[in-house]
Each structure stands twice: as structure tokens, then as C-alpha cells.
Amino acid sequence: MKWSLIIEIARALLLARVKQTLVAAVGVTFSITMFVALLGFMNGLNSLLDGLVLNRTPHVRFYNQIKPNPNQPIDQSTIFGGDLNVIRSIKPSNSRLAIYNSESIIQTLREDQRVKGVSAKVSAQVFYNVGSIDLTGMVNGIDPQQEVELFAFADYVTVGNPLDLNQTNSVILGKGVADRILADIGDVIQVTTAQGNRLQLKVIGYYQSGLAEYDNVNSFASIGTVQKMLGESNSYLTDVQVKLWDFNEAPQFADDYRDIFTIEADDIQTVNAQFETGSDIRTLISYAVGITLLVVSGFGIYNILNMMIYEKLDTIAILKAIGFSGGDVKKIFITIALAIGIVGGLLGLLLGYVVCLGIDQVPFETEALPTVKTFPVDYSLKYYLIGGIFSILTTYLAGYFPARKASGVDPVDIIRGK
């Protein structure tokens, strides 16, 4: 039978029960709308929460770890080496925090095709001197340009320009630090290192990450400023931070260079595994809720088509009596289901996008996240593709079983009963 005739009959049956058709289409539209809006909002929120840590975290971090030497002299003794030796209060060896031959390491890393960028860092434990009180903290010596390009540093500087750190003896204070020592922009503060060196720094900005414990301790200066604060040479570096083009390669990358450089290497998956786990669970819940909505709308279409078949048994009998095969009848009812799914799905995708735009305009201001002004929304195309595919798939399945029942109707029994 020609498809044009099948489509015409399906259209006539749809228009004959306009209210039922609209109810089914509205069910699909609502499901797709909520599916798109829910996934867009939840994944936008995931990106925001993960970004609080993951954007600032290098994919691979190289550093020297201070730890006790496992090879104690007594174990190497020819007399006692084979005995069970119990050694207490082992002290760390006289190893250095600085990375040896750091310049060659950075050059080697930059030549690797997997590397997007490399940023050096110097960390110094300090005391913020406030009158007669000393507050513990950390000053991080960074390359401002590299930090802005690789770790979105500028997004967390709420006041001031991060590139101004290139000025001598300037510092960007964590917002918590600034509040604790009552430091305003332009003030000069004094810090003392653990070695007793003192240096005065001019406050040029505030840094606020959204993590209170981090902001209450950390401040940022240029690498040269921190090296001078520690009394070290220009080659003194405590960390080498690497950003990769694909962060999934981080574990393998860390393994490749850990033994070559004979220093510690932490990858982002190992250090921040809990964040990825939380994000995956939230995403899974979003998909589960969205798919449940689609399945529920599919059952609604199934019930409506079942009722339509019972009400149109005489029509089905006439169609089969005048030459329509069981396959033709099945095509008619599947066409009805798909028409509901396609129309309802398209409207749902459109309304879902509109709802996402609405959520994106809702004010969301908090002191913990000063750079965030509205609720985050992810407009990824994949959510719309998944929603469209599921709307067609669920409506097809919802129409297939009633259609198969309609195709098996015996016209003789129906006409005799009439």
C-alpha cells in the first residue's frame, strides 16, 4: 500500500480524536522539556562545582616530597642486615624542597606533544605579621601570564589585575587573609618566612576561589618576589605544573616522567577522584530522572493508542475488508505514534531550550562565588540529540504493540458482531 494513503488515513484518525492526540503530544512535550532543562541545569552545576577545584588544579604536578629514607644504615650492615631491625623516630633525610635541574625539566615537558602548557611555582610558608600577632599562611610564587592562560587565575581575582604581580614586591591576598588582617588595596603588609626572612608586600588585589579554607591561607606573588623572600636564587622552584590537551592522559603522563626525573608526580585523577565521582553520580541521576519521564510519557501514548484501537475496531475491520493487509494497519498506527512523538519532541526541545534560557537569567549571587551571577546552564547539543532520539524511540515502542494488536484483528468477527 502506498505511504501517501497510509499517512492520509493516520492523519484522519489523529484528527478524529483531537483531544486524545493533544494529551499524548503534551505528555511527550513536557517530558522532553524537563529532560533537556534538567540535564542542562545539572551538568551546568556540575561544571561549576568541578571548576572550583579542577580548573585551578594542574593535570600533573611535579615536586619533591620530604620523607624518611627507607634505606637505614643498620639494614645495610653486614652484621645486622639479615635481622629484624626495629627503628623508631626516623627523621627525614636532608633532601631539598627545590626541584633539581628545573629548567631542563620544564624544557623537556614543553617539547612533549601531549602538553598544552607548563607553569612553574614556588610555595613558601609564611607568617602574616599583624601587630604583635602572627597568622600562618602560604604565599605562592607564580608566573601570572601562565596562570591566567592555563588555570583561569583571572576568573578568581575579584579586585585588581593579576598581571600586575609582575611588579616588584606586590601580592594578591586571598579574600579570607585580607579580611583577617584588615588589608585594603594599596596597603603594605609584612610577612615573615619560616627561616626568619622578612619582606614588605604591597596589596594589589583580592583572590576568592569559593573555598573558604583555601582563601583564609593562600596569597599570590610573582616567582621572583617569593624567591627573594626566601633568599633563594632564580633557579629555585618547588613545583612544576603541567596542563595537558587531554587530561585523561594525566595518569600515564605522570608515570612516564616520574622515574625519568626521579621526583614525585601527582595526576589530577588521583588527587581529585572524589570530585569526578560526585559529578558522575549527579549526571547519572539526571539521566535516570529524564529517561523515566520519557518512559512515563510512552506509557501514556500506549494507553491512548490502545483506547483508539478499541474505539476504531469497525474502522480497522473495514480497512482490512477493502484490501488493507495486517502490515498496512500496523504501519498506520505506528505512523500515528511517531507523528505524536515527532511533533511533541520538537516542541519539547524548543521549550526545553527556552526553559534553559530562563534558568540562565535567574540571579545567583553568593559571596563564596563572586564571579557567578546567574544559575549555570550547559547548552550542549548532545542533550537535545538524546532527547529527540528517545522521544522517537519511546513513541515507536508505545505504538508498536497496539499496532501489532490492530494488525491481527479479524474483520469477519468485527462485522458479524456489529
Short note summarizing the structure:
This protein is an alpha+beta fold and 418 residues long.
Could you please describe the fold and organization of this structure?
The chain has helices spanning 3-16, 18-54, 73-76, 102-110, 144-151, 175-181, 212-215, 223-230, 250-261, 268-271, 273-311, 313-321, 326-360, 381-407, 411-417, and strands at 60-63, 115-130, 133-142, 157-159, 170-174, 188-193, 198-207, 218-222, 239-244, 264-267. With 418 residues, the protein is α+β, with helices and mostly antiparallel strands. Strands 2-3-8-5-7-6 form a 6-stranded mixed β-barrel, surrounded by 4 helices. Helix 1 (3-16) crosses helix 13 (326-360) and helix 2 runs antiparallel to helix 14. It is elongated, with a radius of gyration of 33 Å.
Major sheet: arrangement of strands: 2-3-8-5-7-6
Taken in chain order, the helices and strands follow as HHEHHEEHEEHEEHEHEHEHHHHHH
Gyration radius, in Å: 33 Å
Strand-residue proportion: 15-25%
Main structural class: alpha+beta
Overall domain count: 2
| Uncertain parts | none
Number of strands: 10
Mean pLDDT comes to 79
Largest sheet: 6 strands, mixed, barrel
Q: Into which percent range does the helicity of residues fall?
A: 40-55%
| Terminal Cα span | 27 Å
- Globally, the shape reads elongated
Write down the oligomeric state: single chain
How many helices does DSSP assign? 15
Protein topology:
Blueprint: H1 3-16, H2 18-54, E1 60-63, H3 73-76, H4 102-110, E2 115-130, E3 133-142, H5 144-151, E4 157-159, E5 170-174, H6 175-181, E6 188-193, E7 198-207, H7 212-215, E8 218-222, H8 223-230, E9 239-244, H9 250-261, E10 264-267, H10 268-271, H11 273-311, H12 313-321, H13 326-360, H14 381-407, H15 411-417
Parallel strand pairs: 3-8, 5-7
Antiparallel strand pairs: 1-9, 1-10, 2-3, 2-6, 2-9, 4-7, 5-8, 6-7
Helix pairs in contact: 1-13, 2-11, 2-13, 2-14, 11-14, 12-15, 13-14
